[in-house]
């Protein structure tokens, strides 16, 4: 059974994560969720864990799992176990960290430990001005140069009230891209 690891950073688009998980679980795809501390503002991780019967990990789990030399290291174990990594939503902040190689939480440590021969999908979600900033293009280009596949943001009215590009792609688009990647493994 294929195994998808969804890594969720802090964006209001995180509210779409239960819908993505639901569709994957219905297709019998083993799914694990990793959330940043800030993304928990938008998600009820206990509800997701209970509703879908999946493993959900936070930064605290990284430290709870390791006590002494020789113990499993959670970010390494998760990166080895999954066939596909999906960064959704990928906030401007976390995209900056990933593109710079920063490893300061469970999510970014997983990305840094990820075997780049395995596929990665990334689904940016940010305000239009943030998306249009020149550094964002540099970061997207860097991730693409590593073989990561962009699922581009869409144009719509954003939570801040602005209308423009920056919203995370629709659930169906993301799920279809996940299925396509899994079919090509």
TrEMBL record:
<dbReference type="GO" id="GO:0004633">
    <property type="term" value="F:phosphopantothenoylcysteine decarboxylase activity"/>
</dbReference>
<comment type="similarity">
    <text>Belongs to the HFCD (homooligomeric flavin containing Cys decarboxylase) superfamily.</text>
</comment>
<dbReference type="Pfam" id="PF02441">
    <property type="entry name" value="Flavoprotein"/>
</dbReference>
<dbReference type="GO" id="GO:0071513">
    <property type="term" value="C:phosphopantothenoylcysteine decarboxylase complex"/>
</dbReference>
<dbReference type="InterPro" id="IPR003382">
    <property type="entry name" value="Flavoprotein"/>
</dbReference>
<dbReference type="GO" id="GO:0015937">
    <property type="term" value="P:coenzyme A biosynthetic process"/>
</dbReference>
<protein>
    <recommendedName>
        <fullName>Flavoprotein domain-containing protein</fullName>
    </recommendedName>
</protein>
<dbReference type="GO" id="GO:0010181">
    <property type="term" value="F:FMN binding"/>
</dbReference>
<feature type="domain" description="Flavoprotein">
    <location>
        <begin position="3"/>
        <end position="182"/>
    </location>
</feature>
<dbReference type="InterPro" id="IPR036551">
    <property type="entry name" value="Flavin_trans-like"/>
</dbReference>
<keyword id="KW-0173">Coenzyme A biosynthesis</keyword>
